[in-house]
Structure formats: C-alpha cells, structure tokens
Amino acid sequence: MGEERRHIAVAERRARLALRHRLAGTAHAASPEEVARSLVALHGTDPATVYLAVGARLADAGKTVAELDRALYEDRTLVRMHGMRHTVFVFPAELAAVVHASTGLAIAAKARAGLIKDLVSGSDGRLSEEWLAEVEASALAALARRGQATVNELVQDEPRLREQFTYGAGRSYESAHTVSSRLMRVLGVEGRVVRGRPLGSWTSTQFRWAVAPPHPELPPSEAQPELLRRWLAVCGPATEADLKWWTGWKVTDVRRALAAIGAVAVSLDDGVTGYVTADDIAPVPGPAAPWAALLPGLDPTAMGWQERDWYLSPSLRPALFDGSGNVGPTVWWDGRVVGGWAQRADGALVWRVLEPAGVGREALAAIETEADRLRAWLGPTRITPRFRTPLEKELTTGQ
C-alpha cells in the first residue's frame, strides 16, 4: 500500500493564507518589494489595485504611495508587465525573465501573428509585415531616446503609428484599430516594453511606456517549474485546476512543471487532491490572533485560486464579482471573505458584512479598525474600481 497522503484542512489553508499573504497583523511587510515577493504577482490591470493591495499588507500603510513609486519608477525593483493569462501584473524585477519565458513567449507569438494578419487584411495590403518592422524599430528607438513616453509622444517621433486598419471587416464587431495601440500591446507581451510612470496620480489609468530592462533569456522548461514553485510556496496547497487557471498554461505544462519540482500531492476537504512543494509538508500553525482586512478589487489573494469555496462562500459571488469573473473590493475576517466595501464620491468609506455567521463584535471592531487604517492613508484620494461589482455600486450610491 502507498503512503497515506497528508490532509490539509480548510483551517490550515486559511492559516497559510493569513501568514504567507501578509494579511495577519503580525505578518505585515516592511516594503513593497517584500509584499510582491511574498505574493509573486500583484494584479496591475487597475493601477489603484497595486497600491491598495500593498497598503493592506504594509506595517506602515502611510508609506505605501511613496515607497511603491520608488520601487516602480526609481529603483525599478518592481516592474509592471504582461504575464499570466495575457494580464498586466507587477512582479519583482528578478522574476521578469521567468515570467516572460514561462508564459509570455507563447502568448506573444500568437499576439504578433494576429496583429500581422489583421494589419494586412484590414488595410487591403497597404500595410505589410515589412512596413510594421520599420515602424516598430523607429518607435523603439524613439522610446529609448525619450526614456519614457506616452503613445501620443511617440506618434510625434514616428507618425506612421497613427495609421489605422479595419478589424473584423463586415462583421458585427467591425472597428478601426490604430497601429500604435496594437503594436505597443504586442511589444509589452513580448517583454520589450513595460509600463512606466502614469500621467497624474497613482490612480491614473493613463501611463507612459518604457523600454524593458534587459533580462536573460530562459528556456520555458526551466522557467515554468520556477514560476510554479514560487507560486505553490505562497498559495499551496492548490489543485491542478487552480494551477492551470492561474498560469494560463495547458494542463500538460502544469503536470510537467509539478513533476519537475517534485511537488507532493495532499488531500483537501471533499476528497480533492492538492499540491505543495516538497519542503512544505509540515503543519502550519495559525496566526496568534484573528485578523481583518479590506482588500481591493482584483486583489491577488481573492483572485489567487480558481476553486475558492474554502475562503469565499458561493452565495457571496453574485454580489462581489462582475459578469467577467473580476472580484470587487472585499472584507475579510480570519481567513474568509465576509463582505465588501466601497468609497463614495464624498470620500466616505463604507462596508457591509454579507455572511454574518461567526462575525461577532470582535470581528466588527477589527474590520472597522482596518477601515480607519485605510481611510487614514487614502486621505483625499478617491478610488473607483475599474471593474464595478453589484455590491460596490450599491454601497457607493448608498442604496
């Protein structure tokens, strides 16, 4: 008979989440770099998410904006780039090569092929792959000269970026695409450019581009196990479905990477099989005290797993997710989502518990303390999530 698998129950999974995701008070981090390394990746589709996610985990939340700006735009110890599932993330700079090789190469090849096909067919042959190569080289040279630039600034140096072509001609979704928007996105997926300092404040969705810092080219067979190892160390145990969803890989790639790192199968509740790294078998004790947190929409913890029932009741999903599966701002109590929060136009920060079971006076007081903490460092800043969810909209309007 084979050796019996170790069982990791929900209580231990929540303990691991509290400590490894820097959410319990005693586990808060000292710097944005420490937060990013602990989580592997911070969702960057909504610029405000990065700051709010880091602020929720810093021991001194008041330093969030200044310290994150330093890490992203001065020291460049963190980099905002395309990664898993064709999504923008913020990674520790030392992971750029791993992310690019493990997930970016395959996506980039499809993105470039799609651009060339659409460019040629949508311009009746007026624009070609050779033409695009000339424009691309010119644009990258201009970007290198400027250091950072918006698309509008690059168009001044390379006017051909203004050229348009028709996407989906004759179909219901027919639209005009500009070479600049499609090309910069492809270059981003290819790891040749990264997003730079935004225009305006840290909540701005308008940003500059910068030439990507150089990094070594790794073979996918080396990069995929490394990325999976780092993520499992933070989010294990995780199921095969979780791993496939988070990475965006084929299941064969997931299984190959699991084998390469010697991942160990464990049993989860309901008889499900999960995986941990080989050095992560020992039981993990929980934090010294229960904890509360207010996390932003698209937070990497709330979006960390595909199978979420162990920390988020299915009954809460209609209120907390939009129609595309993006999570909104969430309220946490001791390892599970219990509600959501929002900021109104006048700056008032409001929250609501949707799952009252186990949420007593201690929990309500702790949640309000976290709300006060968030209010204090936001000050006059106003936050509107990029992806609006039913509860967030309801709380915002006060209805």
TrEMBL record:
InterPro entries the UniProt entry points to: AlkZ-like
Domain of life: Bacteria
PANTHER family, per the entry: LMO0824 PROTEIN, WINGED HELIX DNA-BINDING DOMAIN-CONTAINING PROTEIN
Protein's recorded name: Winged helix DNA-binding domain-containing protein
Organism annotation: Streptomyces olivochromogenes
